[in-house]
Amino acid sequence: MKVRIDPERCQGHGRCYTLAPEVFGEDEEGYGQVAGDGVVPSAGERAARLAVSNCPERAIDLIEEA
Ligand code: F3S
């Protein structure tokens, strides 16, 4: 599983990095950033899904890999 944040949609609500700090971080202005290359470790999948469903701007895309 991979995640991606659309910088056009992200408004810096911060729920992603609060709910899934192992998957997301913040830039110096509080906008969300994907940690590393966006690959979600299996232990972080639940938190990543939670972040996706809690982003008010629907700015996080989740890419399921086979
Ligand atoms: Fe941005 Fe949504 Fe996170 S608006 S900071 S991607 S909760």
Short recap of the structure:
It contains two helices and four strands. With 66 residues, the protein is an alpha+beta fold.
SSE inventory with pairings:
Layout: E1 2-5, H1 15-19, E2 24-26, E3 32-34, H2 45-54, E4 60-63
Antiparallel strand pairs: 1-4, 2-3
The structure holds FE3-S4 cluster (F3S).
Describe the structure.
With 66 residues, this protein is of the alpha+beta class. It has one domain (2-63): Alpha-Beta Plaits (2-Layer Sandwich), CATH 3.30.70. It contains two helices and four strands. It has a two-stranded antiparallel sheet. A two-stranded antiparallel sheet has the order 2-3. The longest helix is centred in the C-terminal third of the chain and has 10 residues, at 45-54. The mean pLDDT is 96. The structure holds FE3-S4 cluster (F3S). FE3-S4 cluster binds at residues 5, 10-16, 31-32, 55, 57, 59-60.
